[in-house]
Amino acid sequence: MSTFMIHTAQSALSNAPIADSFFDGFREQMINVPGGQLFCRVGGRGMPVLLLHGYPQTSAMWHYVAADLVRDYTVICPDLRGYGRSLKPATDVQHAPYSKRAMAGDMIALMNTLGHDQFLVGAHDRGARVAHRLAADHPERVLALATLDIAPTREMYRDADSAFAQTYWHWYWLTQPHPFPETLITGSNDFYWLAKCGSGKAGLRPFVRQALTEYLECFNDSAVVHGACEDYRAAATIDIAHDDADTSKLTMPLLALWGQHGAIQTHFDCLALWRERAENVQGWSLQGGHYLAEEVPDQVIPAFRDFFANALAKNV
């Protein structure tokens, strides 16, 4: 790594604010799932809430939201397969081990081990795509689904134009055959992460030092870089095939939140696209960019709380 790369990472970390608390009272566990183990953070008591992170992050992104929800819920924050400290299986020509169906299967195994038959889900970015497949494949398990800054994968690819491709270039570049993107990222991991995640209006301000340290440490693992690329390769191929095969809409309540300063707001009608995939959709934009749970937790937390409480009340 060049001196410039090291300086960039050191500067970002030294300038990042230190959170007063960071998963205080949560326990860290490695949970066995078929093919390996998932790292997860677990805390609280009550109805379980499963929180799924996005790219190129880890479960650390939920530190604000989890600290609030843990007062009334059992909060489970895993690292997805391919990310963080979780399993990174060998792939195949169809990218099936990194399909959202496989990732959703991990979540079912995780929740089975923890003893939760039904649960609420909050999810961001790639994690929300896993959550969508989880709700489609296992509707009896998911009581309600809240998503942050995504529209459904199939519909986004269908409606994408060149302006979107300029903004979400990684959607296309990361799908290039192995080892092209992996080779170009490796050796410049910190620079890539900071440039990619700091490119929005908020820059790197949403990321506290504890989380940023974890993100950069994990993304310096070549297996994480490869796993993330496989996640995107699967999204453009096998995941769309699975979406095309769906013959019914989601029936559980779905909350879609997105950032006013992000690509979803600019390029898509988020609610219209979700209503192609689900029957019971509500949502609105928040005053933030892509990393909403870290940038504007004061807006995300009450939205999640109200949505989950109303969903549970209707299930009584």
Could you give a quick summary of the protein structure above?
With 316 residues, the protein is α/β, with parallel strands linked by helices.
Structure description:
- With 316 residues, the chain is an alpha/beta fold.
- It is 47% helix and 16% strand.
- The chain has helices at 3-15, 63-69, 100-114, 125-137, 153-159, 162-167, 170-173, 180-185, 189-197, 209-219, 222-235, 238-245, 263-267, 270-275, 292-295, 297-315, and strands at residues 27-33, 36-44, 48-52, 74-78, 119-124, 142-148, 254-259, 281-286.
- Strands 1-2-4-3-5-6-7-8 form an eight-stranded mixed beta sheet, with helices on both faces.
- Helix 1 runs antiparallel to helix 10 (209-219) and helix 2 (63-69) crosses helix 16.
- The chain is globular.
Over all CA atoms, what is the radius of gyration? Answer: 18 Å
Helical proportion, percent range: 40-55%
Which CATH architecture would you pick? 3-Layer(aba) Sandwich
Mean pLDDT across all residues, rounded?
96
Assign the CATH class: Alpha Beta
Helix/strand structural class? alpha/beta
User: Which stretches of 5+ consecutive residues score pLDDT under 50?
Assistant: none
What's the N-to-C terminus distance? 56 Å
Describe the strand arrangement of the main beta sheet, using strand numbers. Answer: 1-2-4-3-5-6-7-8
The tally of domains stands at 1
How would a textbook summarize the main sheet?
8 strands, mixed
Count, helices = 16
Instruction: Name the CATH superfamily assignment.
Output: Alpha/Beta hydrolase fold, catalytic domain
Shape: globular
Total number of beta strands:
8
**What is CATH's topology name?**
Rossmann fold
Strand content: 15-25%
GO molecular function: hydrolase activity
InterPro entries: AB_hydrolase_1, AB_hydrolase_fold, AB_hydrolase_sf, Epox_hydrolase-like
Protein name: Alpha/beta hydrolase
Keywords: Hydrolase
